[in-house]
Write a structure and sequence with these properties.
This protein is of the alpha/beta class and about 550 residues long. Helices cover about 50% and strands about 10% of the residues. The longest helix is centred in the last third of the chain and has 25 residues, at about 515-535. It binds one RNA strand of 77 nucleotides through α2, β8, β9, α16 and α18.
Length: about 550
RNA sequence: GCGCCUGUAGCUCAAAUGGAUAGAGCAAUUGCCUUCUAAGCAAUAGGUUGGCCGUUCGAUUCGGCCCAGGCGCACCA
C-alpha cells in the first residue's frame, strides 16, 4: 500500500516549511483541501495565509517563496511527473494542479486491483470495539435503534475497510429493574388472559406483544419468578431477527447478567477504592467522578444494597479494555448524553485515557407519513418499529436514509419519499447509476480491457469523473475522523451525479474501438466505487432496475 | 436554572477540521429520448446562513449575549 498523493504533497510542503524554519509556527496539523471549484486546482493549502501573522509578511509573498522551495523539493521526488503546476491564487492559497497522467495511472490501479486498490491501512490492525443498539430486551426495536444500527454497522464497515480490527458488540441489559417490570407486566397480562381483572400500572409495558408473551408463557408453564427472563429471551429473539433482516450482525452479545455473576464489578470497585475514588455516604457507595470533570459524584451502590446502572457499566468498560481493545466507540441515543462525563470519568479513574473512549450521540429520527410527523411513545408501546420501516420501504432505502444526515443531527425520515422509486429518492439515484453502468457493460460488444489506453479520456466530464473517483480516500478519512459515515452517502450522490452528466454528453460505445475501451474502463472504475461505497453502507447494488 | 443537539432558498439538506462567487434535490417555469436504462441531463428563478456584538487577512463554521425548536439533567435503566 503506497502513500497517497495528498500525503506526498503534504510531505513536500513540510520539507519546504522546514527550510524556512517555520514548520513549528503552525500549531495545527497540516492538511490539503480539495477546492470546491475545479479552477482552483486539484489540491490546495492555506499555510501561507496561516503563517502571515507569525512572519509579519503578506500571504502571497510567503506563498511565492514556498512554491519555489516546494518545486525544488518536487524535483527530487517522483511527484515531479504528476504535478503540472503550483500556483498562488486568491488571497494566498497555494494550489496544486495535477497532470492527467496521474489520474490515468490511478484509475488503472483501480481497474486492476478493484476494491483492494481502495483500502487504506490507517488502522494498523488496531482492535476497536463498536458498541451500538444495546436496546433493553423489553420491546421491538424502534426507529431510534434502527438509526443506531444503520450508522453503527456502516461505521464498523468503514473502519474495517481502513484497516482496523473491528468488533461489533451489543450490551444486553438482561437483568435489573426493567426486566422485573417486564416480568410483572407479563404476569398481569396472563391474569387478564384468564379473565381476571387487573390494575395495570402506567409504568408497565403496555404493548400488545405482552399478551402474546403471556400466552406463550402459559403454554410453557413458566414459573412466575422466571417470567422476566422468559419474556426478555422471547423479545431478544425478535430483536435478533429484526437486526438480521436489517443486515446488521454482532460479534458479541455481552450479557449484563453474566457480568453481574462474575467478580468484575467488585474487582473494579476494589481498584477504585484503592485509588481513592470511592467513598461511603448516607448508606450508599459513591464514585468520585467530579474529580474527572463530572458535575457531581455518582452513586454506584444504592443504600438498599443493589447497584445503580453505572456500576456494571464501569466494570463493563474496564473489561472492554482488558479484552485488548485500544479504542472504544459507543453509539448512544441523545437521552444518554448526560451520562458521557461520568463514564469517561470512570475510564480515567481506572487509569486509562478517556480519549480512547469515543461516544457518538445518534440523534433521533422523526418519521413522516403523508407529510406529517408521527408521534411516538415508547412507554405506551406506540412507536414505529424497525420491522415496520423495513416492511414498508425495504432494507436499502432504510439503511441509506438513516445514515444520510449528520449523525449528530435530527433526521426527518419521510416514508413516502423512501418508498418512492423516483428521482426524489437518493438511494435510487445512486443505484440507478450502478445499474446503468452494468447495462452498458452488458451491451458492449468489445470486452473490457484493463490495459486500455486511458489517456484517451480527455473530455472535461471524463476527467471530472476520474477526479471524483479518486476523492474516495479523502471521504473515508473524513468518516474516520468524525466517526460518522454520513459523508459517504453525500459522496456517492455526487459521484453518481458526475457519472450521469458524463453519460448524458458522451457515448461509451463508439465507433472508435480504443476510445470505447477507455470509456469502458472509466465506467467500470465508477462502478467499482459505487459498489464499494454502497457495500460499506450495507446497501445492495442492483445490476438492473 | 444547567448541559447537549438544531436553526442556511417555499420544503428536505450540503459546504469535515475557519477559506476563494454559500451548493444539490424536491416543488415552479422551460428544453433534451429513431443512438449504451428519461429512476437521467440541461436551463431559468429562488439567500441579510434566526438576531446583535466580537475574534480573524477571511466566519455558515470559533467566542459572548439574545430569540426559536428538540432532548436530557435519579440511590431509573
Amino acid at each position: 500500500m503506497k502513500e497517497n498523493i495528498q500525503d506526498q504533497i503534504i510531505g513536500l510542503v513540510k520539507e519546504a516549511l522546514k527550510e524556512t524554519g517555520q514548520a513549528s509556527s503552525l500549531t495545527e496539523e497540516l492538511y490539503l483541501d480539495i477546492p470546491g471549484a475545479s479552477r482552483f486546482g486539484d489540491f490546495s493549502t492555506n499555510v501561507a495565509l496561516r503563517l502571515s501573522k507569525a512572519l509579519n509578511k503578506p500571504p502571497r509573498e510567503i506563498a511565492v517563496d514556498l512554491i519555489g522551495r516546494i518545486n525544488k523539493q518536487a524535483e527530487k521526488s517522483p511527484l515531479k511527473n504528476y504535478i503540472k503546476e503550483i500556483k498562488v491564487e486568491g488571497a494566498g492559497f497555494i494550489n496544486f494542479y495535477l497532470e492527467p497522467k496521474y489520474l490515468y495511472q490511478e484509475l488503472e490501479v483501480i481497474l486492476k486491483k478493484e476494491k483492494e486498490a481502495l483500502r487504506l491501512d490507517l488502522g494498523k490492525n488496531e482492535p476497536v470495539l463498536i458498541e451500538f443498539v444495546s436496546a433493553n430486551p423489553t420491546g421491538a426495536l424502534s426507529v431510534a435503534h434502527a438509526r443506531q444500527a444503520a450508522v453503527g454497522d456502516a461505521l464498523a464497515n468503514i473502519l474495517s475497510f481502513l484497516g482496523f480490527k473491528v468488533s461489533r458488540e451489543y450490551y444486553l441489559n438482561d437483568e435489573g429493574n426493567q426486566i422485573n417490570i417486564l416480568g410483572k407486566s407479563v404476569e398481569l397480562r396472563m391474569k387478564e388472559n384468564s379473565a381476571e381483572k387487573t390494575d395495570f400500572p402506567e409504568n408497565y409495558y403496555q404493548g400488545e406483544y405482552i399478551y402474546d408473551i403471556a400466552k406463550k408463557a402459559k403454554e410453557k408453564k413458566i414459573k412466575t419468578e422466571d417470567l422476566g427472563d422468559f419474556a426478555a429471551k422471547f423479545i431478544l429473539d425478535i430483536i435478533k431477527k429484526e437486526l438480521d433482516d436489517f443486515g446488521v450482525r454482532f460479534d458479541c452479545w455481552y450479557s449484563q447478567k453474566g457480568l453481574g455473576k462474575s467478580d468484575k464489578i467488585p474487582k473494579a470497585f476494589e481498584l477504585l477504592k484503592k485509588k481513592g475514588f470511592l467513598y461511603e455516604q448516607e448508606g450508599a457507595l459513591w464514585f468520585k467522578s467530579s474529580a474527572f470533570g463530572d458535575d457531581k459524584d455518582r452513586v454506584v451502590l444504592k443504600s438498599d444494597g443493589t447497584y445503580t446502572y453505572l456500576a456494571p457499566d464501569i466494570a463493563y468498560h474496564d473489561d472492554k479494555y482488558k479484552r485488548g481493545f485500544k479504542w472504544l466507540i459507543n453509539l448512544w441515543g441523545p437521552d444518554h448524553h448526560g451520562y458521557i462525563s461520568r463514564l469517561k470519568a470512570s475510564v480515567a479513574a481506572l487509569g486509562r485515557d478517556p480519549a480512547s473512549l469515543s461516544i457518538v450521540i445518534v440523534q433521533l429520527a422523526t418519521i413522516f407519513r403523508d407529510g406529517l410527523p408521527i408521534q411516538m411513545s415508547t412507554r405506551r408501546g406506540e412507536y414505529i418499529t424497525l420491522r415496520e420501516v423495513l416492511d414498508e420501504v425495504g432494507r436499502d432505502a432504510a439503511r441509506f436514509f438513516f445514515i444520510m444526515r449528520r449523525t449528530s443531527s435530527h433526521l426527518d425520515f419521510d416514508l413516502d419519499v423512501a418508498k418512492a422509486q423516483t428521482s426524489e429518492n437518493p438511494v435510487y439515484y445512486v443505484q440507478y447509476a450502478h445499474a446503468r453502468i452494468c447495462s452498458i457493460l452488458r451491451s458492449a460488444t468489445v470486452k473490457l480491457n484493463k490495459n486500455a489506453d486511458l489517456a484517451l479520456l480527455k473530455e472535461k466530464e471524463e476527467l471530472d469523473l476520474i477526479k471524483k473517483i479518486l476523492q474516495f480516500s479523502y471521504i473515508l478519512n473524513a468518516c474516520l475522523k468524525t466517526q460518522d459515515p454520513y459523508m459517504l452517502t453525500v459522496y456517492l450522490q455526487e459521484l453518481s451525479e458526475t457519472f450521469h452528466k458524463f453519460y448524458d454528453l458522451h457515448r461509451v460505445l463508439t465507433d472508435d474501438a480504443n476510445l470505447t475501451q477507455a470509456r469502458l474502463g472509466l465506467i467500470e472504475g465508477t462502478r467499482i466505487l459505487i459498489a464499494t461505497g454502497l457495500d460499506l453502507l450495507g446497501v445492495s447494488t442492483p445490476e438492473k432496475m
